Structures are given as C-alpha cells and as structure tokens.
C-alpha cells in the first residue's frame, strides 16, 4: 500500500468513489455530488493549506482516499476505500501511514453504524468518544 498526493488527474476516480452508494451511506454528507461541484471541491482542496488529500494505491491501482482537514489545533481524518479493498485492513494501514503527515491532535467523525471504520480507527490507536 502506498499513499500519493492527489492531483487533478485523480478527479474521475475520486468522483466515482465519492458517489458510490456504500461510501455515501457512511459519509457525513450522504447526498450525491455532481461533476462540476466535485471539480470545484477538488481544485479548492488541492490549493488549500489546511487540507491534504492522498490517494491510496495497491500495486499502482486506485484503492481509495484519505483526507486530512486541519482546523486550528485539530486535524480531522476521513478515509474511503473502493469496494474491492474494504475489510482487508487497508483502512487501518492508510490511517497509520498518513498520521506521519500530522503535527496536531487528530479526530475522526464516524457514524455509529459504520462499524468497519470504527474498528479501523481503533486498530490505528483512536479512542472512542460517543
């Protein structure tokens, strides 16, 4: 598993992942996003000093994304994996690896029903505060 900085070339794969039904159901924003809105978001993300977006790759294949949003003294982490790579420990591995990029406290906001993500974060050392 490798992480690489996202670029505009990743737009389509990120768009497809974002609008995948299972990803949407676990996302804080569970509504589909249009292409123009997605491109606007991606451009803002790539230019932001407070957001880092990484592509998760396995043998050069797109496997998902992990995003870091810095908000003051706290960084929020968000992870999404393609269906092929869910449930294989890749989320935990990506979380652990990306934490090297962070110089602040890190939080994850996860829906209570997203047991897979809760477990991945717990394995990566996150506590639970419900």
Overview of the structural elements:
- The chain has 130 residues and is α+β, with helices and mostly antiparallel strands.
- It has a single domain, classed as Aminopeptidase, CATH 3.40.630.30.
- Helix content is 35%, strand content 26%.
- It has a 5-stranded mixed β-sheet with strand order 1-2-3-4-5, with helices on both faces.
- A hairpin with a 2-residue loop joins strand 3 and strand 4.
- It starts with a strand and ends in a 7-residue tail after the last helix.
The CATH architecture would be 3-Layer(aba) Sandwich
CATH topology: Aminopeptidase
**Helices and strands, in N-to-C order?**
EHHHEEEHEH
The tally of domains stands at 1
Radius of gyration: 14 Å
Give start-end ranges of low-pLDDT stretches: none
Given the helix and strand composition, which structural class is it? alpha+beta
Helix content: 25-40%
Distance between the termini: 31 Å
Average pLDDT across residues? 92
Can you identify the CATH superfamily? Gcn5-related N-acetyltransferase (GNAT)
Cross-sheet strand order for the largest sheet:
1-2-3-4-5
Number of strands: 5
The CATH class label is Alpha Beta
The major sheet is characterized as: 5 strands, mixed
Strand fraction band? Answer: 25-35%
- Helix run count: 5
Shape: globular
């Amino acid at each position: 598993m490798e992480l690489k900085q996202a670029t505009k070339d990743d737009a389509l794969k990120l768009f497809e992942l974002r609008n995948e039904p299972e990803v949407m159901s676990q996302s804080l924003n569970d509504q589909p996003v249009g292409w123009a809105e997605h491109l606007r978001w991606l451009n803002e993300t790539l230019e932001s000093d407070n957001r880092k977006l990484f592509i998760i790759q396995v043998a050069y294949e797109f496997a998902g994304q992990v995003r870091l949003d810095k908000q003051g003294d706290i960084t929020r982490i968000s992870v999404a994996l393609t269906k092929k790579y869910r449930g294989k420990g890749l989320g935990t591995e990506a979380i652990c690896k990306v934490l090297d990029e962070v110089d602040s406290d890190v939080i994850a906001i996860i829906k209570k029903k997203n047991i897979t993500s809760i477990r991945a974060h717990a394995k990566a050392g996150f506590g639970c505060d419900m």
